[in-house]
Every structure is written in structure tokens, then in C-alpha cells.
Amino acid sequence: MKVEAMMKRQVQTCRADQTLNEAVQVFWDKDCGVVPVVDGEEKLVGILTDRDVAVAAYFRGESLKNVCVADAMGRNVLTVRKSDDVEDALELMRTHQVRRLPVVDPDGRVEGILSLSDFFHAAVKDEHLKPKRLVRAFAAICGWREDKRTVVFDIELQPKAKLEVPTALPTPKSKPAKAKASKSTRSKSSAR
């Protein structure tokens, strides 16, 4: 299956000289978490995520009206083409731990975007996509990065429930101690 069959064609873009405030308005209006950044010829020059905005807002300590997209966007953007195989795109996402890939034409103009959720929607309709590969990619993209953070899973399984975890997942070097909440604390937090 080719990227063209799965990608979203309606992609809102922004320019590097726009403010983060304007970009956030696009996130809100289009209910998205990423906006490709293009130049005057509509060629891809960067990518801006909602996380980029949050980090810039925190560290800059300025109004989003005073910060340009260029100051927060990612510049090393991984891309795919419509003619690329979706399995190759999924592997690119897994390897680089990204959830979205802009789809560009040979001149670098944005034609669409391919997201991890597109793979799951397509898997429901098409048996060609292998669920095990999707789960491995999802685990690599959304799992922990030992050098940056630790993710602790607290999973309560129901009787007869089965949890399959790919063997390719890294394991944390040490587990943090788990704090137990008192009954009174649990009842207060569950009432919220």
C-alpha cells in the first residue's frame, strides 16, 4: 500500500514569520497538534508541534504574540512521498520516534500528512497492515526513552485478559518505588 492511500490531504500550514499565537489558533481551529511550516513558495522549511509551542512558552516566558514560529519549530523534518510504501513510512516513524510525517512532492511542497493514527484507522479496514508491526512501532514511538525519561506502567488486568507486549521494547534499568495512597486520599481524588 502506498502513502497516498492513507495520508490526509487537507493540511493547514503556517509560515516561519507568523507568531506562535497565530499557529496555536490553527491548532485550535483545525483540531490538530502539528502544522508544517512553509516558505513563500509553499516548500517545507520546518514543522511545529503543540509540544514545541508549550516548551517555547515555558522557556521564553513571553506572550505567544511576541514569539515567531521560526524560534520554536523543528528544522530537521523527516518526510515521505505519496509513492512511498506505508511499511517504509511506518519504519521511519518507529526508528525516529515520530508520530507524523509530512508528505511532500519532489520540489518539497507539502501535499499531505501521514500520522500514526492513520495506520490504525487503515488497519481496521485493510488486513495488509500487520498489527504486530503497528504495535511495535507504537511502542517505540510512544514508549520511554531511557536517556530522557522513565515511563511507569500500572496496569490492572481483568481475569482472562491478555496483554501482549512486543519483545523489542526496552526495559527501564530500575523501577521507582511505588507509593501507596491511603483510603482517604483515594476517595478524595476519585470524587473529583
Nutshell version of this structure?
The chain has 192 residues and is α+β, with helices and mostly antiparallel strands. It has 7 helices and 5 strands, in the order H-E-H-E-E-H-H-E-E-H-H-H.
Q: Key terms for this structure?
A:
three-stranded mixed beta sheet; alpha+beta; CBS-domain; two-stranded antiparallel ribbon; 192 residues
Q: Give me the CATH fold name.
A: CBS-domain
What is the CATH homologous superfamily assignment? CBS-domain
Number of helices: 7
How many distinct beta strands?
A: 5
**Corresponding CATH architecture:** Roll
Mean pLDDT: 77
CATH class: Alpha Beta
Low-pLDDT residue spans: 147-172, 174-192
The profile of the biggest β sheet is: 3 strands, mixed
Helix content: 25-40%
Integer count of domains = 1
Shape: globular
Radius of gyration, in Å, reads 20 Å
State the separation between the terminal residues, measured CA to CA: 46 Å
With strands numbered from the N-terminus, the spatial order across the biggest sheet is: 1-2-3
Helix vs. strand class: alpha+beta
Helices and strands, in order, run as HEHEEHHEEHHH
Strand content: 5-15%
Strand-helix topology:
Blueprint: H1 3-6, E1 14-15, H2 20-30, E2 34-38, E3 44-49, H3 50-60, H4 86-96, E4 100-104, E5 110-115, H5 116-125, H6 131-142, H7 183-190
